[in-house]
Amino acid sequence: LTGIADEALIAVDTVMDRIAGLAEPTLRLGVTGLSRSGKTVFITALVHNLLHGGRLPLFEPQKTGRLRHAYLEPQPDDAVPRFQYEDHVAALVKERVWPESTRAISEMRLTVDYDAGSFMNRLFSGGRLSLDIVDYPGEWLLDLPLLGKDFEAFSREAIELARLPIRAKLAEPFLARLQTIEADKTASESDARELATLFTDYLRACRADELALSTLPPGRFLMPGDLEGSPALTFSPLLPSDGSPARDSLRAMMGRRYEAYKSHVVRPFFREHITRLDRQIVLIDAMQAMNAGADAVVDLERALTGLMECFRQGRFNAMTGLFSRKIDRLLIAATKADHIHHESHERLEAIVKRLVDKASQRASYHGAEVATLAMAAVRATREGTVQQNGHALPVISGVPIAGETIGDETFDGQARTAIFPGDLPPDPDAIFTRGKDGEPAHPIRFVRFRPPAVETTANGAALSLPHIRLDRAMQFLLGDRLV
Ligand code: GDP
Fold it and tell me: Which intervals of the chain form a coiled coil (predicted)?
């Protein structure tokens, strides 16, 4: 019954949205990716470029001079936190530090007035489009498969993954405690908390920089949003046992909490947010995974497969039992391309395509257009060449963040420095090859740079933030709705 009621509500919502949309056309754009993939920076840069008439030669509406005016408006959903655009811009532009990353869902509305060329748009929209941007952690999406799994299946798979060679060491304290805990005895809150903490610590350790493993569900264990410490997050997988658990056992309690997590956290998230999206961008940090080695790349691929699953219509409906609006464009983009020389940008793009092809091998996206891209939402570097032993080496330069190091040199956050980042492999398959002694086969010299100084006009107004191919992303995601 709940399923039917859900569907009816969503159908009513969709109709209401459509009716509202006739008077005022809207586009709901989802922005996701695992933590630190660049969501906050992407949204801030996109909005800043639209508001300040950025250099966007590949964004048709801008190129053809049809964009008239872009402005912020109150978002339509009062219960969702607003994306803190103003704070993020102040950090990037005034202080030249990277803004605070996404920790939960947030939303903002940007409205664009444009000269409508198409008859339909002139007639119905008067040349106005409201863009609702929804920012949310990719970790939460990876919970989708849980909806189709009971506690036993979840436990079995989570423990299997924890025992994989690359994870086993990190999972050791958790796995060891699982062996000793008496899950069929009467439950105690402290046992539940202890296991949940050990399990969360293990998931968190997997994300540490040098390992860069993508995450595993449950997504809220790493990105709890406002649920931190609640019983729905205080559970963990358990080793199997024979027979059915006693009602007051730890096993029964963990099972109940797992089900509560699904019904109170996962389903509402999909129902209230994901079903209403029109378009989606998924950001990935491919270079970080490559720097951590082939195992991390395989892991990223697994996460990407999971993320993309959520946008396959048939699959989504089957798993959630929810009826969703159709996402008609899906963009998978590698961010931070300003860390490599432009000669390697095509290679990075080939790598993203390779990851996506593998991830979507069995998937069909029923008419949804899927595209891939390498970009930098904010370009923190410039390019140049230096002569070394008679060869011209392509380098990038920028201001490394205070405390960054290369070799034994530590930077102070002020001086501009040129580095040779290294090349990406010409054959995208090479990212899956293992280096010697567990070293990554294709490391990139990766230094974190400060955000760039933004040019200002004569009267001191800030011009837009520099980027690489952000305009291509915008053309794919928005261009056709501004004709
Ligand atoms: P989120 O967790 O997905 O919201 O990630 P953020 O947008 O906060 O980005 C995480 C970090 O990646 C930032 O603090 C920056 O250091 C870096 N970053 C993100 N986007 C870019 C980019 O376009 N260029 C550069 N150079 N760094 C970026």
Answer: none
pLDDT band at 3 (very low <50, low <70, confident <90, very high): low
User: Pairing between strand 106-114 and 405-406?
Assistant: unpaired
Element (H, E) at 180: helix 165-180
Tell me, using a 6 A CB cutoff, whether residue 449 lines ligand 1.
yes
- Write the residue with the smallest CA distance to atom 7 of ligand 1: 38
How far apart CA 411 and CA 212 sit, in angstroms, is 24
On the question of pLDDT at 338 being above 50, the answer is: yes
d(CA 312, CA 32): 16
Closest CA to 280 of 309, 319, 242, 243: 309
All structural domains of the chain, each given as residue ranges with its CATH number in brackets, are 2-136+273-378+468-482 (3.40.50.300), 145-264 (no CATH), 382-438 (no CATH)
Q: Which residue has the tokens 């797992």?
A: 258
Q: 88: CA distance to ligand 1 center in Å?
A: 12
Establish whether residue 41 lines the binding site of ligand 1, counting it when its CB lies within 6 angstroms of any ligand atom.
Answer: yes
Please state the atom number of ligand 1 nearest to the C-alpha of residue 40: 7
pLDDT tens per residue across span 20-57 = 665 678 999 999 999 899 999 999 999 999 999 999 99
446 touches 407 (CB < 8 A): no
Which tens digit of pLDDT belongs to each residue from 198-208? Answer: 999 999 998 88
User: Are 177 and 194 spatial neighbours (Cβ–Cβ below 8 Å)?
Assistant: yes
